[in-house]
Amino acid sequence: MAEKINLKSVLFNPFSKNNPVIVQVLGICSVLAVTAKLAPALVMGLSVIAVLAFSNVIISLLRSTIPTSIRIIVQLVIVAGLVVIVDQLLKAYAYDVSKQLSVFIGLIITNCILMGRLEAFAMGNKPWPAFLDGVGNGVGYAIILVITGFFRELLGSGTLFGIQVVPQWCYDHGYSNNGLMILPPMALVVVACIIWAHRSRNKDLQE
Amino acid sequence: MENFNIFIRSIFIDNMVFAYFLGMCSFLAVSKSVKTAFGLGVAVTFMLCITLPINYLLQVYVLQPGALAWLGPDYAGVDLSFLSLIMFIAVIASMTQLVEMVVEKYSPSLYAQLGIFLPLIAVNCAILGGSLFMQQRYDSWTIGTAFCSGAGWGLGWLLAITAIAAIRERLEQYSHIPKPLRGIGITFILTALMGIAFMSFLGIKI
Question: Cys staple from B75: which of A34, A100, B68, B193, with CB 3.0 to 4.6 Å?
Fold first, then answer.
């Protein structure tokens, strides 16, 4: 760790250039499952930011004391502890949303973004950069969630955050909601379109 | 018969990949060639078959509200369900480690094939997802049901990853895809199309 880490790039790279979802291809499952509406997508994004930032810090503090042979179990248990806290908080303060997210809060534990960042970054860096890395990757994940959720809710239900945005006269003139957008497969297509747009702009990412 | 129905349903109707979209990360990352995809699929099936019955027993005898009644009347009011996430993931992680050691000792050739995939499995959300779905439905289940649905989910995942790997192998050679969409982008769209196809199973009642 002799080289100086550029804190700014640690925080901002995951927003676009090194985005955890569309470039590193991590944490896809939850993107598909929770983005049918914008509100659960936002809550899920915030939960992941919180869990990722704090687990990164904790692992980074413990990084020299964890024996490598059992590090996966240690990491999973720390993450699981944090997820239980988030789960209980959501049940207490946002019960409806937590019902919609159902098992997917629990599945944050196995969200590969977490394991990926813990392994790749937190195990070898000081707490402060690890915290920034956690926040950066969490925000990068949340951005994709919110974009996907925005399009799916707008086209699928004609609402945003549950408020009607497509005006009634559109429906009167024959416009109808696209029920397909509510189904999980369409999340894949929306993400594929995001990847398409993103890679057209960043040519060095193309395969 | 009941268990057999659940087995079939877990493979096709409740398919882990196409109906629940779980286990996507390794599904997308390891589906470049049929051979490795099949190896990972076998490993996942195996782990689901082991961890689902174990977690079912844990749920019934330790975690559900009032489950500790067998320890004595004093414990009947204890509700440990908030611990379920930690317990499940601990079982999965330690079973992964255990299976890795056993396979390494007794079947080095299988270990050489599965080797790199075994650690990956601990974080495959299909496995934890299986246990969490079990937790929502365990009331009407027996341990046989847990095993059957574990096997079904595993085989369904195996089917899905092998199919997509076969398509991707052909696609690389014969098709002309726009550059920015190559690789991961087209795989997303492929998975979506297969998911829509699998939805036709939803109408089947068994």
Answer: B68
Element (H, E) at A204: none
Q: What letter would DSSP give residue A126?
A: -
Q: In a mutagenesis test of the A interface, which of B89, B171, B187 is the best target, namely the one with the most A β-carbons within 10 Å?
A: B89
Q: ipTM of this model?
A: 0.77
pTM, whole model, 2 decimals?
A: 0.80
Q: 3-class DSSP state for residue A17?
A: coil
> How many Å apart are CA B186 and CA B102, to the nearest integer?
38
Tell me the chain B residues in contact with residue A109 when contact means C-beta distances shorter than 8 Å. Answer: 85, 89, 128
- 10 Å CB burial of residue A56 (0-12, 13-18, 19+) is buried
- CA atoms of B12 and A108, how far apart (whole Å): 25
Rounded CA separation B31/A90 (Å): 35
State the CB neighbour count (10 A cutoff) for residue B82. 12
Q: Give the tens place of pLDDT for each residue, A48-81.
A: 888 888 888 888 888 888 777 677 778 888 888 8
**Of B15, B2, B58, B6, whose CA–CA distance to B153 is shortest?**
B15
Kindly report the number of other CB atoms within 10 A of residue B164's CB atom: 23
Token pair belonging to B102? 């056993």
Coil/strand/helix, residue A159: strand
Helices A184-201 and B184-198, axial angle in degrees (round to 10): 170
Q: Where are the beta strands (DSSP E) in chain A?
A: 159-160, 163-164
